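Box 3.1. Reading complex inputs
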Amino acid sequence: MRRGDVTLMREEHLPEHHPHVHVHACITHSEPFHEKLAKLRAMHRRGKKLTVGVYGLTGCAGCQLTILFAKDKLFRFLTMVDVMALPFIKEQNYTGNFDIIILEGLVANKEDKERAEELRRRCGILVCIGACAVHGCVPAMKNFMNNPEVERAVYAKVDYLNSLAATPVSKHVPVDLELPGCPPDENQIYAVLTDLVLGRPPRVTHNPVCVECVHREVDCLLMQGKPCLGPITTGGCDAICTAAGHECMGCRGPAPDANLTAFINLLERQGQKRENIERRLKTYAALAMDEAEKAQDVQVNF
Amino acid sequence: MTRTITLDHITKIEGHAHLTVKIAKGKVKKCELGSTEGARFFEGLVVGRPYDDGVEMTMRICGICSVGHFTASLKALEDAMGVTPSRQTQAMREIMAIGERIRSHATHLYFLSLPDFLGYESALAMAQKYKRQIEDALTLMRTGNEIVTVFGGRQMHPMGGRVGGFTHFPNAQQVKHLLALLEEAKAPALRTLDLFLSLTYPSLTSQREHISLHQQHDDWPLLTGTITSDAGKTFAPERYEEYFTEYVDRWSTAKFVVRRGKSYQLGALPRINNNVHGLAPDLLAKCKRAGITFPSKNPFHNIVAQALELVHWVRRCQKLLAAHKQGFRREAIRVTPRAGTGVGVVEVPRGILFHTYTIDEQGYITRANIMTPTCQNLKAMQEDCKQYLQQLLDAGAGKKTIVLELEKLIRAYDPCFSCSTHFLDVDWEETP
């Protein structure tokens, strides 16, 4: 079993802290989140199953597949909750309200926006999973490029696409919980879902990827001259890419206390072009990175 | 009321599929298929990026065929820069592609197609009565996933490889682990084939070209081979965009792809039709007993073809891995960027995936074009829907049966939005 692996357990089996599971979760909803959790906790104590829906907006379905591929964890989860909608594999999907809705994908057109608004109305807790839903992923880069040029590279005529600026779900509706990553780790998804079922505060990490990378005893790729984004990227992924010898690409978005200026200087000293660094930083979480850069007064030149 | 149907050029995956049907006096007047998935503009986004980013970014097009995009973009970029990957690298990519083929087919067969034939709303609802079948599905999916994870570092959007080679190398222990999993997967794969051979498929014959890569000897195509049609034509990969032309239809943003104005079909069925010689004798005998012969022009037989491939690739992967029992040796990546244009044509679970890139002398991408199999199959799917619909109307089928049967047909193609056809909205317009 891989480190960081978590199995779903009943409350009485669950230790107070899972030392190896780091979960990054941003709570952005205005209503106090703990009140919602208290409701879930009460339901759990009464032995009432939560109703769950899993939906996707524009995206690659990779996050829903991650849920599906989890095999044992999925089937154990299915005994704990009622998954009443999952259009990806279900024909009959409940059209009423849910306790929890899990949503993947970004808002890229009018239909996505309307769908996100509808789903928000229909649930108590909205959980966004994956880089698309949380950060806008690769498509959101378009916001920082020459828009017409990008669109014309694909379509000769674009006015019939109903296309909106590629944006994360939280730009349109309040989101209770966000699990970033392209895709998020299955352990992480199920750890958070278990927490919600039990009405516990989801386990959060603010550590950058480097912390997990060191845990796994991976030789530092930055020291080898590779442009690894580990120091400024939120962890929770168990450093799977660096463990495979590939530098971190920053798919989980900027870590809360990342020092961008210092990091960019470091990469420039390595001989990386400023323009490439900027593009690299804005690949998966362009909007969040832009906000972080502005907050830290980073000079952007591309 | 007629609705506008849009199918995005690149996303072409889940999202909500739309079918607009117009019937007058028992005749099909209109049958338009599309999806409302939002446009993501990947080909525009990779312009100006270093070549390696092209691999990493275009992979994000699809979760279920990320290895497909990975191998196609690598092939295209290496072609552009004149890089020849080592034999070990090629073998590793092949094994990864097999892993993806196994998990993709298992997912489609059991989770998307089988419930249609057994009369269930989903595989989850089947779990009680068909426990062993669901377990087989999960075993196969896990096997495929493990293969991709061991070679790519992660199950989705693999990161272990880049232009010129790999960044990590599975050791002897990992190879042993995969061999054990594959041994375990052999029986479930055969049971899958038996199960899908035992189902009854509607009869539908569509006369159109079946195009796939062609392999000599007793193999089936994956990452290499000549582009071949069952009419006996071969096509040079570098002229793919000339042979297979994209066009935009009045009602759709989809760039339908056609050959000389006509639809053609890609996927597991064309692959087998064009490579019948690769069918192992025991599998051939099973098909014969079930009364299914190849080549077949029944689009529903694509499902059987996938089950056949499942068995084939589990066996083939065992052979490939057995040749590397001692693990894979570390190899350095050496790539010198140079200007050029390259194409990558590979077989992914749903058919031929085409990538092309032009890069400048510093190794920056200046142009990209991608044609996915679902895009290329779209016109065929639409035509088959129309033909099948007429067939059903002539047989006096009711609306409910028709909707169900059309969904079944669309899913048989395993389009990348097959998932969403569980959500199929049928616009029904009937004039007496």
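In summary: Chain B touches chain A through 68 residues (CB under 8 Å).
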